[in-house]
Amino acid sequence: MAVSVDEAVSTGPAPDHGPPARRLGGRGRSVVEIALLTVLAVVMLFPVLWMLETSIKENRDVYAIPAKFFDFAVTLQHYKDVFVAQGDGRTPVSVNFLNSVVVAGASTVLATVLGVPAAWAYSRFAVKAKKDQLFFILSTRFMPPVVVVIPIFLMYRQIGLYDNKLGLILIYTAFNVPFTIWMMKGFVDEVPAEYEDAAMLDGYTRLQAFWRYTLPLLVPGIAATAVFALIFSWNEFVFATFLTSSDSVRTAPPAIAGLIGGTTTDWGLVAAASVVFALPVLVFAYLVRKHLIAGVTLGAVRR
Amino acid sequence: MGTVAAQGLRKSFGKVQALDGVTLDVPDGSFFVVLGPSGAGKTTTLRAIAGLEKLDAGTVHLDGRDATGDAPAARDLAMVFQSYALYPRHTVYENIASPLRARRCSSSEIAAAVQKMSSLLHIERLLQRRPAQLSGGEMQRVALARALVRSPRAFLMDEPLTNLDLKLRVEMRTELTRIHRSLGATFVYVTNDQVEALSMADQVAVLKEGKVQQVGTPTEVYERPANQWVAGFVGSPPISLLTCRAEGDRLVGADGWTLPRPRWATAEDGQALLLGLRAEDLSVEQRGDASLSGELYGLEPLGDRTVVDVRVGTEIVKVKARPTVSGTPGERLSVTVDLDRAHLFDAGSGLSLSEAGR
């Protein structure tokens, strides 16, 4: 079709072509988008929703067929069962939760205390074969835990770390330190070394310079890194299953899994325990979300 | 007291030889400028003196005492960084107080010293701000105050004026000279700006690719450059270098021109030379005995003067002229040369031949 120059380069008011054609780039796409996102949201959120519902249903509603989505009696009995034993005293699951707190907390603290100075050293100093060392450190994370769990089980049994909270703390620390070093090195790289140079000329030692002027700038990064380490330790299942047996040592993930099975499964209790288990990390991540996002994007950018 | 002596400093970063035997002798109380293009090793030299860089070889003596292995804190030096390196989480007050805190001074002493420095540098009203709330010029003053708040052996300054705009830079140049004079302290000042070097220094060391090319007063470096490279680096517009050779009592250019051979030139017959001519030692307006003929190539009016580019054969000669000079490109011109002020360099080694004969 021939188009005259006047038509193509019109300077007058645009001729009325009606509303702009609906194409994939227009509003049509956002309808498709919304539909797809809704499907995704339902698929992703349904298990969570179902867990929440089950945890507050009475037992007969839990097993009701057809399943009750809305009209069921609400009870908090399952939550009470998680913490309070039948007669008196604490339930095994509550002990497991406490173990999880101790193990995840201690291993996160240890990994941070070891990893942050290491990351600083790798970032600041000329270390021989630095890249090879860093790659080696990272390579310890290539292996899935399940590959090493049997040898570690055998070693732990020999040295008395089997069924021992210290054993779990050490193995989680070992898994978190490489991650901490790599993530923290990114943050340390972002802090100009000149602050420390200036502090040393002011009269501080290198360590004082790090402590006074670099460390405060690393706090967001440390928070972000620690959250990731904490989430790993908190959720870890394989090592916890293989390396512990008694309820006084076992952490929550294998303990909750252990509630399923036997002749009957108290699904209400499982759901309530799962909710209680999921909450701390959610709350913690929400509290430090500012650092988390700042940290992740900051650490990712290389100058 | 505050002498700094660096002897044979060598440092390489991977394959790059940053310092290749740098030797500097900074007398007590002098304003010593290390001048060179970027990548010449100026900052590395300064960091080596400060103890921030581990040397491959060489020694650093402070006040005559070997301080080569000493920690930066033990050297009693103060440094102003090019990036200023102000502590971002601390107020201006705390930044300036940092060197005194490191020395465990009492808070009343600190308050007095910070007060004194901030009034000297006119930053009293900034004391409670943080570095992010300061302009470039203010940051520069704070960095200076942090260095000046105590009396170290020597002050090390790493291109402290580079990040400032031109007007501020000119102001701070005068101010730094004033501060240096009033303190009587030793300054080691690194810059790539020859104007800073020539206007502020007592002594200039010209550095290129990790080697010291020449050390001398600004006048010496400008008037008697030790080699062709120094002659080309110092001076604006840059010196014009013409290829020629000595023949009897004449200098014969590669392009066929001839000039009387200066009396002081000790070159052998046939030796390949470079004739260095500064723009102010040439004229297109006056007549003299020695002249080159060429054609007008371009005019560069600079307000107070005009730089006339004259093509002599295939080479361009820059001539300083009055601002009113005019002409059309291609026009024939005669350039009068003040041969007494010309420079001759050996074309092979680049070394100056002017020195021996003068």
UniProtKB/TrEMBL annotation, chain A:
It comes from the Bacteria. Residues 1-24 are annotated as: Disordered. SUPFAM superfamilies: MetI-like. Keywords: Cell membrane, Membrane, Transmembrane, Transmembrane helix, Transport. Its main location: membrane. Pfam families: BPD_transp_1. Residues 97-288 form the ABC transmembrane type-1 domain. InterPro entries: BP-dep_ABC_trans_perm (IPR050901), MetI-like (IPR000515), MetI-like_sf (IPR035906). Coiled coil: none annotated. The chain crosses the membrane at residues 31-52, 97-122, 134-156, 168-188, 209-234, 267-288. PROSITE patterns: ABC_TM1. It is a multi-pass membrane protein. It is found in: Cell membrane. Belongs to the binding-protein-dependent transport system permease family. PANTHER family: ABC TRANSPORTER PERMEASE PROTEIN, MALTOSE TRANSPORT SYSTEM PERMEASE-RELATED. This is Carbohydrate ABC transporter permease. It comes from Micromonospora parva.
